[in-house]
Specification:
Blueprint lengths: L10 H4 L2 H6 L4 H4 L3 E3 L2 E3 L11 H6 L2 H20 L5 H12 L6 E5 L5 H7 L7 E6 L2 H10 L5 E5 L12 E7 L8 H10 L1 E12 L5 H14 L8 H8 L3 E8 L2 E7 L7 H15 L3
Helix pairs in contact: 5-8, 9-12
């Protein structure tokens, strides 16, 4: 029998992806669910928060339209300071996460779905990717530009991920963690929904070792509501949560951090993670 290539099966083989994805939603969230022109809205008329300048920027329909063509390439060039292409970036992430088969993948703060759609092409069988974002504009752009039989887009809050614990084989957040409020709380939620043995990956900012560069980055970031991470915060949080195989790559003013949740673990990880989360909130991080 000839091996089937990822994404090569007929559409009916993947038609159950939306139903499978909705099956992972927590019962307490289901009553707020509604379907909106290609994506599932789990926020509805939730009380609005006070967004940062960066968040308001990402909520703009104009920004959503220009994100992939202009703004993201510039951002990646600034973060990495070398000529890696967007396609190469996505392929590198896919390889690192060992995507394939019937995995359940969650792409947190997915924006217009640039990674979500690409990851969906790597899967087969019952595999699917959920792209989660709080911005209506980004959800609409994701549906328009990165629709895929295995990509399911849901509007939800990364601070309160609406899925059952241990629901996903892979959880990731690329070029977005620094844009969300309380990023440590977001990491906590990402680990909560990761299944034992699953992989987690984050690509975010890095303040570098130079005091001058770090202060300049922090000043600009503070004005825009963007977080700048040092080299220890994300790996240390992963370690405190009991994750293993932690790997960090520093490139330019960005970092790529990946880890695995152990197959067997005690519930102590949740307590340790919650303590980190509470401590980080007390210092405004």
């Amino acid at each position: 029998m000839t091996a089937q290539q990822p994404g090569a099966e007929t559409v009916p083989d993947a038609m159950w992806s939306p139903a499978l994805a909705r099956g992972l939603i927590r019962d307490d969230v289901m009553r707020s669910m509604r379907y909106c022109d290609g994506f599932t809205d789990l926020l509805g008329l939730a009380a609005p928060t006070r967004p940062s300048l960066a968040q308001r920027f990402m909520d703009s329909p104009t920004v959503a339209a220009l994100y992939e063509r202009f703004w993201r390439p510039v951002m990646i060039a600034m973060m990495r300071l070398h000529g890696i292409s967007i396609d190469a970036e996505r392929q590198k992430a896919s390889d690192a996460l060992q995507l394939g088969g019937d995995q359940r993948v969650l792409d947190v703060a997915c924006g217009p779905g640039n990674f979500t759609g690409f990851f969906a092409d790597q899967l087969s069988g019952d595999g699917f990717v959920i792209g989660l974002d709080k911005s209506v504009a980004m959800m609409e752009r994701a549906v328009r530009d990165n629709s895929n039989a295995r990509a399911v887009y849901m509007r939800a809050d990364a601070l309160n991920v609406p899925f059952n614990s241990g629901a996903f084989d892979v959880v990731c957040c690329f070029a977005a963690l620094h844009l969300v409020p309380e990023p440590i709380s977001v990491l906590h939620e990402m680990i909560r929904v990761l299944s034992p043995g699953g992989r987690i990956a984050v690509m975010t900012t890095y303040g570098r070792e130079s005091l001058l560069i770090r202060k300049a980055l922090e000043l600009g970031a503070e004005m825009c509501g963007v977080q700048v991470f040092d080299r220890t915060t994300v790996p240390a949080f992963f370690a405190a949560a009991g994750l293993t195989d932690i790997d960090q790559q520093l490139r330019g003013v960005s970092q790529f951090v990946m880890a695995r949740r152990p197959e067997r673990e005690s519930d102590a990880w949740y307590t340790r993670s919650a303590r980190w989360r509470a401590r980080s909130k007390s210092i405004g991080f």
